[in-house]
Amino acid sequence: MEMIKKITALCILTLLFCSTSFAQKTITLEDSKIKVTVENKTGNFTVTEKTSGQVWNPDPWENAAGLLTLVDSKKTKQTVNISNSKNIELTKKGKNTVVIKFSNPTFKDGSVAKGVTLQTKLSLDTKTSKLRVEIISYTSSNHKLLSLRYPSRYFSLKTDQDIGAAVIPQKQGIICPSYIFPMNGGRFCKWDDTTYNNKSIGTLELFNNGTGLSMPWWGTYNKKSAVVGIIDKDVRPKLFFNINNNGQYLFNAEGKMSTYQRVQFLDPVWDISTPNQTIGGISYSFIPKGDYVDMAKEYRKEAKKRGHFVSLKDKLARNPDVDKLPGSIYFGIYGGYPHYVNMPGMAFTFNDLKDMITTIHDTLKVDNAFIHAWGTFSNYVPNNWPISEELGGVKKLKEAVDLTNKYGYLYSSYHSYSALLENDPDFSTEFMWKDANGKLQETNSRWARVDSKYQLGLAKKHITEEIKALNLKADITDITFAAYREKGKEDRIALAKYIDSLNLVNGTEHGQEAWIPYFDMFEGLTYLGNPPLSTISKKAPLFSLVYHDAIAVFGKIQDPDNEVTNNGDFRIKSLRSILFGRGTTIFFAPYEFNGMADMIKMANKLVSPIHKETFYAELESHEYLSKDFKVQRTKFSNGTTVIVNVGNVDQKIENGQTIPGYGYYVTRENGKINKGSFKVSLLEN
Fold it and tell me: Which segment of the chain is annotated as a signal peptide (predicted)?
């Protein structure tokens, strides 16, 4: 009887402990470096990074743990603060994990989204001091769930109080300072206007071919600490960015002025529109005194774990022709194809091509070149064959290719297996994407119309015949690998593996990190002409800090170095190329060739030697040496140090040294100094 009483008392105590565990105001996850405090009233958490004393607080505007977008029972789309849910429960799982359940969120009018639940989980890895945040389940009841921003507005910076930046790997990479001065080219009005014209908020996708992220991470830092979030592999949240914005967009409908402070934050946006799908999560690392370089290096370690990183030295060991890329100028010669075949005024004969290659070598003295010729076939893509007889046929084109082999250059004709063009006289929908009922899909893009299941077959159809006929050492495959989409992914991987098996020097337009093991060079991953963040961001080599010694990056053909664009003119691009360890791209139609001579000479003299020297080296660091971000310095693992000034004003750096406008100061790996500057002059006749 006494034993029964004791057991009963123990059970009661256990039940009391379990029931009060939900009523705890806080649950703490902690190790020697990180303390995470979770409170049950809102489900929010606070992170204290102990070394620096930095405290990362929750949402500074609405104290929202997350923002749920859903369609309510009246078919109205709404976004609700899940911290206003009727029930929030915390459950500790083991020593360093807590599950947070949000039930029945409340709409702004006080009504309740009955039956809607969300469960999230926070886990602290005490070996690495990383905080993992994930969504583990959700139910919709009679509502349609769309997306969840979680965690929302965390790790934010207060504009002009926290001196730091948001770090976004958009294309090559950008940082967005969290303070106004110095303004972007003195354009305070543009900086300020972005708050009111929605240019400082928006959503970016992962691995797309436009404004999206080239790597699955982002973060913020101030003078004390940095936080970088790395997304799980094979998970695709979007990134919502708010850069020095006061949330005026939340008040416009009511005609009111925002009551919020300007801040910047970066939120993952999870798609929860499909019931019972696996969502995944994001792991946050906290770096005392860290910045964007430390963030990139943190992801570099993860990229190697995920198998994305295959070094250029390993690629060289497999194919000695990879050593023709260092120092190369990438020449795009546009003869009309693939847009039009034998285009009047643009088409070149293969004798013309031979003459250009000879001039590049003999007259312009270019030691390393990659010749990419557009317009060599008599059919439109995706049928990259036969070689045009009208332009000279196989014999004459081989003579041109033989010249490139003789000079130690690389050559490829333009290849694409994904495009279908309406102006093709043999246009057909045979290879287009179709749904189960045969309805055409992907009809809006002429460049991505071919169902990926056909692309390997189209490549195999003629590529080995072309390689044999011309004795090719290289291949450029356009478009297919510009993005990394889930739809048709396995077929694209099969195509990449096949192209890789040909053991040529392989290149592709844009490129994404998942394709790095199969390619030696990317044409692209530089900067877009006018992306949403251009006015309020500074260019940083985030991609190269991770992957410089794994993939050779050249300029984008449609954003050529020889045009004045929003990315800067040839001077700025050349300076940025030596700074980032990037190769030069020069793109021209045949009739423009003679006008390219001066730029080719400058690129050959300045960019090529630095590119050749740093090609296999890791880009170890990058820093801004002037308050206006114009003077920058990089260091490579081979010992090369590059300082450039991409502005037109002479500036002194920390040691009193003056770097002239549009100037450079390069310490070579052998200790030799190269210095100079670009000057604009006027010649009167």
Answer: 1-23
